[in-house]
Amino acid sequence: MDRIPFSNLFDAISPLYDEYMNKIGELIRNTDFIGGQEVDLFEKEFASWTESKYAVGTANGTDSLIIALKALGIGPGDTVLVPDHTFIATAEAVTMVGANVDFIDIEEDYYTIDPKKIAEYLEGPKGKSVKAIIPVHLYGQMANMPEIVKTAKQYGLFVIEDSAQAHGSRLNGHQPGYYGDIATYSFYPGKNLGAFGDAGAITTNDEALYKKCKMLVNHGRWNAKYEHEIEGFNMRLDTIQAAVLRIKLQYIDEWTALRKEKAKLYIQELSQISTIRVPQIRRGADPVWHIFSILSENRDEIIEKFKANAIGYGIHYPIPLHLQKAYNYKGYKKGDFSVTEKVAEHQLSLPFWPEIGLAQLKQIKYSFDH
């Protein structure tokens, strides 16, 4: 049997290799490295593709979250709620602006923040300091935004949609950014829309927030190079990454269609295996399948079979945020977030990328039993 990697980024790069290299060569010859037309055009094109009024390029997905929080005025004395089951960047961004981060358990079926648990927190003794919620659209499927936004409006809270894994995902026909105040994106190379390094973006339909974000990413400047309206950061999107993303944006719908096709085949192949639970799709959702995640109580056995058959795999995320050493100061213990802990113990990510072949999918299924 051939080795199957967890992911294969070059399958999508290879057919467009010359186009990428020609564009990068052009920028090098013109010494066009910071800002410029490629960044401006990418922001306009990405805003259009996400059905948003505005987009701002950033250096990475974490910076996108930091900028969003700063633009909304979140800082010391404020609490921001994030799901316990997510990459640490979502939580790190909160503390980087001086605010207090706290965790909310997830819905087991969809891995996303539980709106009922949000409401319980807000009704409790710590609820008064909450100023914002950051739902994470995980593995390519959006969180329950109608319920989250309903609660946020009731309590006067901002909503930032962490969409790092949800480029083009929809819920009830709407993409990230439709429901919340701001949506943030990562273009880390392994994302559905990935750069050739770190890159990110923010989208919003609020002109004032757009202008604030645009200034914050570039030292507080709006137009003139040495005129600074506010204090900002150096969190700009590089020109070469913007150019690469502009090329990729032309093909993202095609790649997403392939992801959906392969996910459907995966589900057909694996649904008959009684020891695993295939991904569940929320009513009204149209996921883009960033990660193909299953749950299994015999995960360790499956991993050993995968190793024996040279099949890659991933675990997202093996240690819940409340049990990370970085958050020992919060005083949480095992058992405090039962659903997240259960998912962390049983979650397994299978090999997945748009061009993965049917023979490879069948080989993966075969490995569950051999």
Describe this structure in words.
With 370 residues, the chain is an alpha/beta fold. It has 2 domains: 10-249, Aspartate Aminotransferase, domain 2, CATH 3.40.640; 253-369, Alpha-Beta Complex (Aspartate Aminotransferase, domain 1), CATH 3.90.1150. It contains 13 helices and 12 strands. The chain has helices at 10-13, 17-29, 37-49, 61-71, 89-96, 115-123, 145-155, 207-216, 239-249, 252-270, 299-308, 338-346, 358-369, and strands at 54-58, 79-83, 100-104, 130-133, 158-162, 170-171, 182-186, 200-204, 276-277, 285-286, 292-296, 347-350. The protein has a 7-stranded mixed sheet, sandwiched between helices. A 3-stranded antiparallel sheet has the order 9-11-12. Strand 2 (79-83), helix 5 and strand 3 form a beta-alpha-beta unit. Helix 2 runs antiparallel to helix 9 (239-249). The radius of gyration is 21 Å and the shape is globular. It starts with 9 loop residues before the first helix and ends with a helix. The model has no long low-confidence stretch (mean pLDDT 97).
Question: What would the keywords be for this entry?
Answer:
370 residues, alpha/beta, Aspartate Aminotransferase, domain 2, 2 domains, three-stranded antiparallel β-sheet, globular
Distance between the termini: 12 Å
* Strand/helix succession: HHHEHEHEHEHEEEEHHHEEEHHEH
Structural domains: how many: 2
Largest beta-sheet characterization = 7 strands, mixed
